[in-house]
Write a structure and sequence with these properties.
Elements: H1 2-16, E1 26-27, E2 57-63, E3 71-77, E4 85-89, E5 97-100, E6 102-104, E7 107-108, E8 111-112, E9 115-121, E10 129-134, E11 141-146, E12 157-162, H2 169-179, E13 185-188, H3 201-213, H4 215-218, E14 223-224, H5 245-250, E15 266-270, E16 273-277, H6 289-300, E17 308-312, H7 329-341, E18 346-349, E19 355-358, E20 361-362, E21 376-377, E22 383-387, E23 408-412, E24 416-422, E25 427-434, E26 444-449, H8 457-476
Parallel strand pairs: 1-23, 12-13, 13-14, 16-17, 17-18, 18-22
Antiparallel strand pairs: 2-3, 3-9, 4-5, 4-10, 6-9, 7-8, 10-11, 12-24, 15-16, 19-22, 19-23, 20-21, 24-25, 25-26
Length: 478
């Protein structure tokens, strides 16, 4: 009995320790039920303006520093400037501290934004629930947030991953299902409001509606922002030619905390993860500012403290959909070798309005004279995941290449979101949930094994010790 139990456990352990153990990729045959692929009307309750004169609205937050002890809280007041002030404390209704920030506004064509407030709340305690109040008098509003645990190699934490969200009924379904997942922070892979699909003043109006739409989540937990092509907003016919103008006014990032030269690319550390955000629409070739910054940032990664190395970008490097096929090739040629060398665990992207997950593969051996011409299995490579399926009005990208490439593990043209639940330094649980299933029936899931702590002999010895301990406890129970 003990021998049989040992064999069963050992077999399960071996299977779970390979991220590439599936023999063949899967193209899902699921056919998505059609919801209206158009934006929710502006008079819908999903976009309701909070009651009260000059009441704060579009409340959202992101991480405000490198290590998770600060947040940037942002909001809009439509009628009057008001003070950019946040009152906060650890007890509901008792605000011991005050932080002040800055206010800005902008015009876009003839649209005039409200007064946009950004306040850095820093010197927070780890793993603490804070309550905060913004606004004054009868128009004040109260919210709360939870700071992450102190950085450490075995700190469990759960991230949500959302991309290409928009503001349709499908978007609403994605947001509602995500909020049921129990995740604590969103990694957002670009294309927020899709306001650029409108014209003239409606561009700004649809930024405002989206800010109110996502507030039910963004006011209570950080969303780590990255920009997509729908944030560019290049409109010569309106004399609007400054890229990312609306996005940069509304959604700040902690780029200065990681010595980045631009809010478009930056890094944070949170719990046991080091997260790097890259810009697919800023120069990234050799010796450009983004290239120089990433080279230095990768040197700062300490896998003994933050074993999980995660990269966010908008355009996927590996994609087997006819839509946007090979658009990420230029960034792959520049950065893929770094990802493999530094053993990045997983890369999340959006842009393609479907879901796809790769095996661990790379194409770094290829050159014009020799080498492998196609992606090959590579145990040091990250897993690439495309989560551009948030629900925007452009609809799904259902034209996958046939046959399915060998590097593609699972793909499906549906709306949904992902979660990454880190358990310790060695493994994490990944799930993708299509909207029809909600959080209870994951459509694609696997155990993600940490690249750094699975590599050296010393670390393998540590894993064997954990296995022996687990086997001993189970056998002793019989």
């Amino acid at each position: 009995m003990k021998s049989l139990l040992f064999q069963l456990i050992l077999t399960s352990f071996v299977l779970l320790n390979s991220d590439n153990n599936v023999n063949a990729g899967v193209t899902s045959v699921f056919i998505r039920k059609e919801y209206p692929s158009k934006d929710i009307p502006l008079d819908d309750e999903a976009f309701a303006v909070p009651t009260g004169h000059n009441v704060p609205q579009q409340v959202h937050m992101t991480q405000g520093d490198y290590d998770g002890k600060a947040v940037i809280i942002s909001w809009v007041t439509a009628d009057e400037p008001e003070a950019s002030k946040v009152q906060y404390g650890t007890s509901k209704g008792k605000y011991e501290f005050t932080a002040e920030g800055k206010m800005t506004n902008y015009t876009f064509y003839k649209y005039k934004s409200g007064y946009i407030h950004h306040v850095l709340v820093d010197d927070l305690e780890y793993d603490t629930k804070y309550y905060y109040k913004i606004g004054t008098g009868d128009s004040a509003r109260e919210f709360w947030f939870q700071t992450p645990p102190k950085i450490g190699p075995d700190v469990p934490y759960k991230f949500g991953i959302i991309g290409d969200l928009g503001q349709t009924y499908n978007s609403l379904s994605t947001l509602q299902h995500y909020m049921e997942s129990g995740a604590e922070t969103v990694l957002f892979v670009g294309d927020l409001s899709y306001a650029d699909r409108y014209q003239y003043n409606d561009v700004g109006i649809r930024w405002d509606s989206w800010g109110r739409f996502v507030e039910k989540s963004t006011a209570y937990q950080p969303w780590i922002w990255s920009a997509g092509n729908h944030e560019i907003e290049y409109f010569p016919y309106m004399d609007e030619v400054v890229p990312f103008r609306s996005y940069l006014q509304r959604y700040p990032t902690p780029h200065l905390a990681c010595k980045s030269s631009s809010p478009m690319w930056y890094a944070i550390r949170r719990a046991s993860a080091h997260i790097i955000v890259l810009s697919s629409y800023s120069p990234f070739v050799k010796y450009t500012p983004q290239w120089e910054w990433l080279r230095e940032e990768l040197k700062r990664v300490d896998r003994e403290k933050t074993p999980w190395l995660i990269v966010l970008m908008h355009i996927p490097i590996y994609n087997s959909n006819d839509v946007h096929f090979m658009e990420g090739e230029s960034m792959r040629a520049v950065f893929e070798e770094w990802f493999v060398h530094h053993k990045v665990d997983i890369v999340f992207a959006g842009h393609v309005h479907a879901y796809e997950r790769s095996y661990r593969i790379s194409n770094i051996r290829y050159n014009v004279s020799s080498g492998d011409r196609y992606p090959v299995p590579d145990k040091s490579a990250p897993v690439y995941v495309t989560v551009g399926d948030g629900g925007n009005q452009e609809g799904l990208a259902g034209r996958f290449s046939d046959p399915q490439p060998e590097y593609s593990a699972f793909r499906e043209a549906s709306y949904g979101h992902s979660t990454l639940e880190i358990r310790n330094r060695t493994h994490a649980f990944y799930h993708w949930n299509r909207n029809d299933d909600g959080k209870k029936v994951p459509t694609d899931s696997f155990v993600l094994h940490n690249q750094y702590w699975s590599s050296s002999s010393r670390r393998r010895k540590l894993k064997k010790q954990h296995l022996r301990s687990a086997l001993g406890r189970m056998i002793a129970s019989y």
